[in-house]
Specification:
The complex is a heterodimer of chains A (116) and B (111). Chain A has 116 residues and is mostly beta strands. Helices cover 0% and strands 50% of the residues of chain A. In chain B, 0% of the residues lie in helices and 57% in strands. Classes of the chains: A mainly beta (116), B mainly beta (111).
């Protein structure tokens, strides 16, 4: 079955450490996204990529980095510069067009990061 | 800048008690308004996309409608399994194909 796989599901980090969250999709989607979710805050966009080897900052990109070397993969690194990294991180993908169906985002199951 | 506001923040219903969730939005060049359902600890699940004022879509007990300023998610005769957080989002040319989400409405349906 096609879908999005995020790993790990739970991750604990000490302050000052960088961590990388994995996101892999087998939907043959061109566009991929990273969102952060905090209680009562809804989903906030960190980074998005519309095509391989290209990505743009979202609303809260500071302290995060991404790469898009393959169509299927869009890993997110949470760096030590991120002041409050404890959150639920969601990866998503879409076909990447404006037409009906092409703009629907499909989400992974999420990764919960806790900074100790 | 796109803005999406959902109300109420939380809603408690008795099983069978119909109600509506509201999503008001401000966006330049709406490309689509989306409704998602999210269960605790899981990723959002797509429900509907609406593209123009007057459009309506239905799925089981849920019906979504759209005007030029807001969208409603009507829940008819809800069941306990409808308990979840319902998220509204808009898409515009301002951020590529990404969605701009509201904070959600947490719905609890009691037997």
């Amino acid at each position: 079955d096609g879908g999005i796989t995020q790993s790990p599901k739970y991750l604990f980090r000490k302050e000052g450490q960088n961590v990388t969250l994995s996101c892999e999709q087998n939907l043959n989607h061109d566009a991929m996204y990273w969102y952060r979710q905090d209680p009562g805050q809804g989903l906030r966009l960190i980074y998005y990529s519309q095509i391989v080897n290209d990505f743009q900052k979202g609303d809260i990109a500071e302290g995060y980095s991404v790469s898009r070397e393959k169509k299927e993969s869009f890993p997110l690194t949470v760096t030590s510069a991120q002041k409050n990294p404890t959150a639920f991180y969601l990866c998503a993908s879409s076909m990447g067009g404006w037409g009906s169906g092409a703009n629907v985002l499909t989400f992974g199951a999420g990764s919960r990061l806790t900074v100790l | 800048e796109d803005q999406v506001t959902q109300s109420p923040e939380a809603l408690r219903l008795q099983e069978g008690e119909s109600s509506s969730l509201n999503c008001s939005y401000t966006v330049s060049g709406l490309r689509g308004l989306f409704w998602y359902r999210q269960d605790p600890g899981k990723g959002p699940e797509f429900l509907f996309t609406l593209y123009s004022a007057g459009e309506e879509k239905e799925k089981e007990r849920l019906k979504a409608t759209l005007t030029k300023k807001e969208s409603f998610l009507h829940i008819t005769a809800p069941k306990p399994e409808d308990s979840a957080t319902y998220l509204c989002a808009v898409q515009s040319p301002n951020s590529g194909y990404a969605l701009n989400f509201g904070k959600g409405t947490s719905l609890l349906v009691t037997p």
